[in-house]
TrEMBL record:
Superkingdom of source: Eukaryota
Enzyme kind, highest EC tier: lyase
Location (main, coarse): plastid
Entry's Gene Ontology BP terms: heme biosynthetic process
This protein's name: Ferrochelatase
Subcellular location: Plastid, Chloroplast
PROSITE patterns in the cross-refs: FERROCHELATASE
Matches recorded under InterPro entries: Ferrochelatase, Ferrochelatase_AS, Ferrochelatase_C, Ferrochelatase_N
Catalytic activity, EC: 4.98.1.1
CC per GO annotation: chloroplast; mitochondrion
Length: 530
């Protein structure tokens, strides 16, 4: 097992706004929200008992280039101090921790090679990439959660759904220039983060590891090993934690770590820590608020504008059955931004809704499209859309919000429409990410002394395994993540199962196409027979 340490986060907050998924608008209340586990800590990945994954081609597919930093820092011959003593028991937390951190960070980085691994979703770079990208996405058991007994269906189902969905997705990607801008933007964020770290006297290399497209997380890890990184901070680029995003990426990482234990000891010995979510960080909240403020001022009557937060949805069962903290974190995030806006003298009304649902199951509500229509009917005339679950422009901002929802809003009687840009490389935001990395450094590789310390400390201890278990009660029932889809005649039994299942799915498809009856017709993927 690898080192386990959680870094401190702000104390849990009592928020004054109550969100109700059946209502479109927030209401004010004096009842504090139920407390929940604060995720503003860092965790580390342990080589767990997750089964080995198949078909990984780390060496060959490694095309990743680390973003490089030109800054130089004097090397100290002193050994790094024991960060635990400086950071474990203080109760007024953040400020004291920060001061101590700036005192020791130069010593701490001495003789270390620090790496930051940015985790992100990835997106197809060309239209030809769309179907295989979708395959990787739907083959992820954190995206389509089949019970373990049906695990053999995961890949055939992914193949089937990706082929069925590809034409619609391709249209979307074609309309935003023929591919996703995600890789470019994430690389730029990595560069900016590295410069910001440099400016704060932390020379570090930043790596990008995508979940479903290049550069894959496996490639990033290969490069990290080649570069001999000794301390790694893992930073998912999703402000709020969801099983389906950060959770999935961390689960994959965990399986890479456990998979590689047998081959080399590098990953076992590499000290690391994970920042699972960071939506409540001051810099992020302030950067978002500033962007909103700027856009509000473009409206003829800024004070009359409804601020419309639109988050990517997740299936309702993730939150209600598995325990995904996504919704709670999203609501808290919106509350924090609204509080900051109020501090700046703006008292606009706001709404939170969820977009981009896929498939036949119920997703988090209210849905963005229905909410826009309802707001129009209620006489709202000015709407400012704020994409809240992601920090880069992507297909769902550039196409879904800017085109589809804008059109819907105008049709629904909204007269003035605006959209807040994604954060991208906004300097306050990047600087805050750099601070998050720096604040987590003392916890890289720090070990728990005892369970008692874990329970009493403001810096509780845990592992990604525990984190995922806390937020995902169904996790044990899921198969390990699919790393790479292998076509062809391999010897593994899984492939045989897959082939058999694929034949079955194919037979179902033929039946469905010929009879006009079945799930795909119900879901609207196939049109009804004439
Ligand atoms: C916080 C962000 C995201 C969550 C939560 C999320 C969950 C989720 N997504 C799908 C299905 C699809 N997502 C797709 C694209 C996509 N998703 C996110 C972010 C979250 N997804 C981003 C940033 C992107 C875009 C990447 C890009 O190329 O620009 C797609 C592909 C696009 C399409 O065909 O619509 C699918 C499909 C599910 C099922 C899910 C939760 C279970
Ligand atoms: Fe998505």
């Amino acid at each position: 097992m690898l080192h386990v340490r959680l870094a401190p986060g702000p104390a849990p907050r009592n928020l004054s706004r109550r969100w109700d998924s059946s209502a479109y608008l927030h209401s004010w209340c004096s009842v504090p929200c139920p407390s929940r586990l604060s995720l503003s800590r860092t965790y580390s990945i342990k080589s767990s008992s997750i089964g080995s994954a198949t078909g990984l081609c780390l060496g060959q597919c490694c095309r990743i280039k680390p973003l490089s930093c030109k800054c130089k820092l004097g090397r100290s011959s002193q050994p790094p101090p024991d960060s635990r003593q400086h950071f474990s028991a203080s109760s007024s937390a953040s400020e004291a921790v920060l001061t101590a951190q700036s005192d020791i960070r130069k010593l701490f980085v001495a003789n270390e090679k620090i790496g930051v691994l940015l985790l992100n979703l990835g997106g197809p770079e060309t239209l030809d990439d769309v179907q295989p990208f979708l395959f990787n996405l739907f083959a992820d058991p954190d995206i389509i959660r089949l019970p373990r007994v049906f695990r053999f269906l995961q890949k055939p189902l992914a193949q089937f759904i990706s082929v069925a969905r590809a034409p619609k997705s391709k249209e979307g990607y074609a309309s935003i220039g023929g591919g996703s801008p995600l890789r470019q933007i994430t690389d730029a964020q990595g560069e900016a983060l590295m410069e910001a770290l440099c400016g704060k006297d932390i020379p570090a290399k930043v790596y990008v590891g995508m979940r479903y497209w290049h550069p894959f997380t496996e490639e990033a890890i290969e490069q990290i090993k080649k570069d001999g990184i000794t301390k790694l901070v893992v930073l998912p680029l999703y402000p709020q934690f969801s099983i389906s995003t950060s959770g999935s990426s961390l689960r994959l990482l965990e399986s890479i770590f456990s998979c590689n234990v047998r081959e080399d000891e590098y990953l076992v010995n590499m000290q690391h820590t994970v920042i699972p979510s960071w939506y409540q960080r001051e810099g992020y909240i302030k950067a978002m608020t500033t962007l909103i403020e700027k856009e509000l001022l473009k409206f003829p009557k800024p004070q009359k504008v409804m601020i419309f937060f639109s988050a990517h949805g997740v299936p309702l069962a993730y939150v209600e059955e598995a325990g995904d903290p996504y919704k709670a974190e999203m609501e808290e995030c919106v509350d924090l931004i609204m509080e900051e806006l109020e501090k700046r003298g703006m008292a606009n009304p706001c709404t939170l809704a969820y977009q981009s649902r896929v498939g036949p199951v119920e997703w988090l509500k209210p849905y963005t499209d229905e909410t826009i229509i309802a707001l129009g009917q209620r006489g709202v005339k000015s709407l400012l859309a704020v994409p809240i679950s992601f920090v880069s422009e992507h297909i769902e901002t550039l196409e879904e919000i800017d085109v589809e929802y804008k059109e819907l809003a105008l049709q629904s009687g909204i007269k003035h429409w605006g959209r807040v840009p994604a954060l991208g490389c906004e300097p306050t935001f990047i600087s805050d990410l750099a601070d998050a990395v720096i604040e987590s450094l003392p916890y890289v590789g720090a070990m728990a002394v005892s369970n008692l310390e874990a329970r009493q400390s403001l810096v509780p201890l845990g592992s990604v395994e525990e984190l995922l278990a806390v937020y995902d009660s169904k996790r044990d029932m899921l198969p390990p993540p699919v790393i790479v889809w292998e076509w062809g005649w391999t010897k593994s039994a899984e492939t045989w199962n897959g082939r058999a299942a694929m034949l079955a799915v194919l037979a179902l498809l033929v039946l469905e196409v010929t009879t006009g009856q079945g799930l795909l017709h119900q879901w609207g993927v196939l049109p009804p027979l004439p």
